[in-house]
Amino acid sequence: MSTTFAVETHEPAVVLGKSSPEARPVIQLDHIHKTYTMGDVEVHALRGVSLTINEGEFVAIMGASGSGKSTTMNILGCLDRPTRGTYILDGEDVSQMSKDERADIRCKKIGFVFQGFNLLSRTSALENVELPMLYLGVDAATRHERAMEALNAVGLAGREQNHPNQLSGGQQQRVAVARSLVNHPALILADEPTGNLDSRTSVEVMEIFQRLNRERGITLVLVTHEPDIAEYADRVIVFKDGKIKSDHPVEHRRSAAEELKNLPVIEDEDDEEE
Amino acid sequence: MNLLMIIRVAFRALVRNKMRAALTMLGIIIGVSAVIAMVSIGQGASASVQAQIESIGTNLLFVSAGAQNVGGVRSGTGDTGNQNLTVDDLDAIKREVPSVSMVTPSVNARSQLVAGNMNWNTNVTGVSEQYPDVRKWPVATGSFFTDADVRTAARVIVIGRTLADNLYPGADPIGQDIRVMNLPFRVVGVLAAKGQDQQGRDQDDVAFAPFTTVQKKILGRDRIQIAYVSAISQDATYTAQSQITDLLRQRHKLTANEPDDFTVRNMTDIAEAANETSKTMTILLACIAGVSLLVGGIGIMNIMLVSVTERTREIGIRMAIGARSSAVRSQFLIESIVLSLTGGAIGIILGVVLSLVIPAFLGWPTLVSMMAIVGSVLFSAAVGIFFGYYPARKAASLDPIEALRYE
Known about the structure:
Chain A has helices spanning 2-9, 69-76, 99-109, 125-136, 140-153, 169-181, 199-216, 227-230, 256-262, 269-272; strands at residues 25-38, 41-54, 58-63, 84-89, 92-93, 110-113, 187-191, 219-223, 235-240, 243-249. In chain A, strands 6-7-8-3-9-10 form a six-stranded mixed beta sheet. A four-stranded antiparallel beta sheet of chain A has the order 2-1-4-5, sandwiched between helices. Chain A starts with a helix and ends with a helix. Chain A is globular. Chain A is of the alpha/beta class. In chain A, helix 4 runs parallel beside helix 6 (169-181), helix 5 crosses helix 6 and helix 7 crosses helix 9 (256-262). Chain B contains 13 helices and twelve strands. A six-stranded mixed β-barrel of chain B has the order 4-5-10-7-9-8. Chain B has a two-stranded antiparallel sheet with strand order 2-3. In chain B, strand 4 and strand 5 form a beta hairpin. Chain A binds chain B through residues 74, 77, 79-80, 99-100, 103-104, 106-108, 112, 114, 118-123, 127, 131-132, 134-137, 179, 183, and chain B through 1-2, 5, 9, 12, 16, 313-314, 316-327, 400-401, 404.
């Protein structure tokens, strides 16, 4: 854990957001570089990104394609390793971990929500939500209990036996959110979670995120290219050319719950039943 | 993630695609059932050869004129050119070899047999009165001829069941006359029915007369082609074999570097040779069936490779969620093992059923061998591991980022 101290000496360049003295950092990126070699060409996807995200923050990451936001996402999610630099996740240096160690970290500390939902087809919502616990080695009774609780939290009680093809896009994404929650991760990473959803369903999903963030203090990192979606977060980081271009709190934060009250209920076959 | 859970995950994945799983298993099912059925046929044949040999008597020895191998040139035993096995030789064996209990020559004469207006072509075999004891072949009705008949070259004959049925349909042949080469013979006995031998020849299509009669009155020469010798016990067969060899070499005045001009074989050797033959046949059959098992295994590999490609996204999801490479590898490996073992289990049932049904439909004896069953189970598990390993490793080596992006 000597690297932890090393990081403290290199105080990240920009520390914003809810950085009160007692705030505990969940993510600490220190001068992260990522270089891909494509044939003879070296592509510098990230050129020294330093960033701290504290517990309970709701951060939106924005940027054009090629800005490095996806690479950052992959590194934050421990799907990829930085070429250089240090990444401390929840007090643990994960920057040079092996494939298996990163798999374990993802299992215990990170919940993923993807644009394409990425649920297992022909598998019930309940089993999909149970999946991360299966890899953590949770016993069957606890798995069932926690999965039901998570499905309940996203408003899908009674839908647990449905297969993804029997659920609407919004419902599938809520199953994915429930799945990301069940192992009580330190961090939930949402990669364009509203990209495949219509505007009302998008607000519904954002409402769940805001609620989880507010009520459970779950740290959320949201990657999006839609500025209005980013306004549901409390801090927006904009990437450009592999660097952080700006990092500031959201001034007029949108409340999904408030907006939902004013939105007309769309006559949707699946939503009707709720 | 423990093994039980991985097995459950694998089962679920297979159940999701029942048709494909069933078709993939079919290759293994056919392979395993073919191996079991083929080995059963081979073992059945082997067992029936063994039973037949045992019924002849394992203390039996054959002494034949001529050598099997003279200076590297093989010649048939009982060769017509050899006149070197005589009645005196046999008398000497009976008299001087302590481990021998009974001796009977066997001289064949193919003849037309006529009884009344019926006739039949068969081998009339000249033997001694000890033949029924040596060959463990009892007389059913009447009696065998006596040593007095042999000494006097009496024209008496003992016939097999087939002859009795064909020459005297519905009548008692005992005391009847039968003409062999225009000489009248009196039927004194009918042998117990033996049925077909392993090659499907009718063993009851025979007639026995005193060898002296056959030599003098039918063949007109006194050479002996083959003699059957009974050792006092099965354990004594090898002693008897060497003692007979020594005696005959001495009687034939062979010097130390001259080869035998006769052959002594014992039933145990013949049984072993027969065993060797059926073993070879069993192995051959099993190998052919094994090829289909191999093809079944390749089928599994093919499907598993398709499955890995098709489920790239699923693999990506599992990895992102926290599955280690080893968990993904185990999942796919177990899927293929489950496929091959389930196929193997169904194949065993089918193979055993086939083995039980074959005798009824094809008339071949079968013997379901435990070894074939255990072997098939091990082999199909090995097929699952061997052919499942490559696809499983391919799945485990996927990069989660790439796999998640896969459409």
